[in-house]
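FAQ: What does the model actually see?

It sees only this:
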Amino acid sequence: MDPYQPLKYNIIYGLISSWTKAALQAKKAQGFKLGKPENLTDKAQALAVQVLRSKAATNENNKRAAALIQVYKEQGLTWLKIAENLNAAGFKASRGGKFQATQVQRIYERLQAYK
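And it is asked to produce this:
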């Protein structure tokens, strides 16, 4: 493997990001209205939050992780240590990434709210 490959990817992603930002700024300067105004209403934002919460609550991985979080918290582990244990055990957060301490805490707090 090319030892410079990660660096090359970072450079490429950085270039794409700057090109995209420049193109969007140019469109704004031309008077184009970016985004969808209907997505910016309070109702649309509340619906987005509801959908995200629903997905998090029904995610199978979160359900299994929640049971472990409960046990680990009863053992007195910190949020960070619980997140590390979940990641080491191969659990993935709802979007497929690694668990962070804050995510673990939120899952635990949701569990407590349902009791």
